Amino acid sequence: MWAFAGVVLGTAVGILPGIGPALTIALLLPVTFRVDPTGAFIMFAGIYYGGMYGGSTSAILLNTPGESASIITAVEGNQMARKGRGAAALATAAIGSFVAGTVGTIGLTFLAPVLVRLALRFGPAEYFALMVLAFTTVSSVMGRSLVRGLTSLLFGMGLGLVGIDLQTGQARFTLGVPELLDGIDVVIVAVGLFAVGETLYVASRLGRGDGELTPVRGSVWMTREEWARSWKAWLRGAIVGFPLGALPAGGAEIPTFLSYSIERRLTRRPDEFGKGAIEGVAGPEAANNASAAGVLVPLLTLGLPTSSTAAMMLAGLQQYGSQPGPLLFERAPDLVWGMIASLYIGNLMLLIVNLPLAGIWVRLLAIPKPLLYGGILVFAALGTYSLNSSVVDLVLLALIGAVGFVMRRYDFPPAPAIIGMILGPMAEQQFRRALAISQGDPTVFLTHPISAALLATAALVLVGPRAVRTLRSRQRWRAAAPPPHEPYAGRGDAR
Amino acid sequence: MVGLAAAGLGLFFIAGAYALRVLPGYARISPRFFPVLVGSGLVVAGVLLVRSALRGEAPGGDAACDWKATGLVAAGLLLHMALIERAGFILSSTLLFGLSAYALGSRRLAANTLVGLIVSAATYLVFTRGLGLSLPAGVVG
Fold it and tell me: What is the ipTM of this complex?
């Protein structure tokens, strides 16, 4: 039941242009407050998958990807819609999401216990190293440049520092405002950066680049040929997506881009690519959903969010006083496995809800933009206010929204800020714990083999690409092409 | 510009960190360390951003910007903030909705206000009755 509600809500909100899955969860967090933990977890799972899928619908029909992971879908899918095969594109995206989501969830089921066993041997030093690795990969993968990613990450970490220091009980950076003692709620930051920042940005660029709705035509049922061309792409996409999602590298862009280039290379009709090739929708959509399942692996086993959506889910789970991680598997196995089981159900629901109802969802896209953003702001303010019933939170929301606007305008990815905000304080705690155990000897991080290896990888991520680029720089100048139209707030908000 | 702001924020964190009183017992793993780290990181990032801006690399986002619309949305947020506890959720949200819809180019004031009123009232009912959250009722009980 909760899974159904989650899928419906997730799809409905996710379909609206300008709202990615991370914002979907942030906005719906207040709704789940009053639900018991298991129900809420299940609903999260539904919202997560629903939100992911919703993004592809607006990508296909409007050519405005709601999230970075749908950029590729927009390229081929919108062409298909223009050719009157929009319904088939939606169908292959839905079935592909289902296939890949199932493959990914199976992977999660088998991989999670293995990782948990490994993670139980982790000490604070290893956790700290792991988080450092996540910081570097997240800020280098997302967004246009490393400096931008890092700036965003550090901004988030700074926000995370506000409040009472957990180990000494001192108040830090509260500027004497008592409401800040508890720290800044991550929901406010997410809603501020994504919803308020985006609305201000849309207002600042009024009348430019409006997406145009392509009506859905054609049968939902795919022809035999379309099936034949799709199923291999689904499987390949799933196989590419899951492991990349499970790595602490964040972002569904890489798997989707990779899947697209694989399909392009393997197809028998290379001439159709760029003009609406069904493989170009099926593969990346599958990769997208499989990596979404992959992201849950580090989230559930290590408590490590690697995308802004995962960070929001973590925030939601923390509200119930449960800290995901290896201990959660031991302490509340029914909760964790219940959630994993609900992923299967949610996936199935997604298919059932979306195939016949695609036409109804499309109506949502017809909401005029001014009303849509007006509604987004009302809900943003509502969600923020209902956290603590405090006006201070609204002030924060506006301030962070202003920062979000600047970041959006000058091309800073918002996702690292969210991740830094959640992981920053955790990293600090582990860091100080590790030092306390070693009695202040900073070499613990290098003498523990796992920790040393993780830190070395992190250093490589920071320096490696730059070294490679310097070597190649004389041959090529930035291969990355700009995304079509203007994708919502940034590449970073995938998943 | 952004770079300068980032560097400034970084300095703020460093300064704030040194303003903290550190109890001697915790000296080794001081609560200062992380703020200093974050602060210096921001300063470095800010300097790098300023450098790339001086080199004339595209700052991203073109210069054109509709400040009037942006300002209206911001004003809507500020008004909402000021009014929510006095006029109540429904009225302040209706105002916020109407202002931002107007800012984004919709000129049908009456219709928008009506939609805003319906949206706000409906969410108010769902949240207070259905989910048991409390929102300020204000003028309209």
Answer: 0.72
